[in-house]
Amino acid sequence: MSQTEISTIQPSIVSRHSPSRVLIAVVVGILGGAVWLTATTSDVTKISEPGVKLYPDGSPFLVDQAGDWTGSERRGLTKEEQELLPQDTEGSRRLFKDKNGNQLVCSVILAGREATSIHRPELCLPGQGWTINEHMETIPVAAAPGGTLAVMRMNGTRLAQWPDGRVAQLRSIFLYWFVGKDRITASHWQRIYWTSKDRILHNTNHRWAYILIHVPLGGDVTESETAASEVYAMKRATSFVQDIYPTLVEK
Questions:
Q1: Could you tell me the CA-to-CA distances from 172 to 13, 148, 159 in Å, in that order?
Q2: How many domains is the chain built from?
Q3: What is the pLDDT of residues 82-116, one digit of tens each?
Q4: CB contact set of 221 (below 8 Å; sequence gap of 6+)
Q5: Residues spanned by the domain of 183
């Protein structure tokens, strides 16, 4: 995730948390594992079809209207993302608004041949100043297998400065899940397991996509207002997921 993605609906960061040694060790370990996996299976010759719909140019499809939500002009990967991710990584994102003026950002990132195209938001959000906590949550989605969709939910807070100089603590809800060919999971480790199995046993690079939804909650509020706004924001996110899901996944 990039700062550009969220700056369209929130002010600039004024405080950036330095990553702890534990976080650095985790990131290095994960990246090292990905490099090892890629190196030891570099002769993989098959590439699975994506599990998400595509535009003719190969970028992931992202509809401009989902239920009551209307999307802005579609954007691809940012310059920063293009510099960090493998060249064949594809992306689409839109800022969506409903009839009441509520806003959220939906992004779809599609991996190319390399396993390092996809990473968990938990690895980059702290570097952008976010403090997060996460848990798995289930959303009823009629179009999903079994009628439900497991998503990883992250509640995030950060300090930011508005254009007029005011400093506020901002809060957001982030939801994400991974989509592969005939496979869906919100678990990073499940995705890694399937990726390793496909590459080693089936000579196939599994071309994953991940869908990320960012719902801003607002600025400084009381504890009771925070709880209420989180419930309301999650209802908006749930409604959006139910509307957008069938437009994303390739049947």
A1: 14, 23, 12
A2: 1
A3: 888 888 899 999 999 999 999 999 999 998 877 66
A4: 229
A5: 3-248
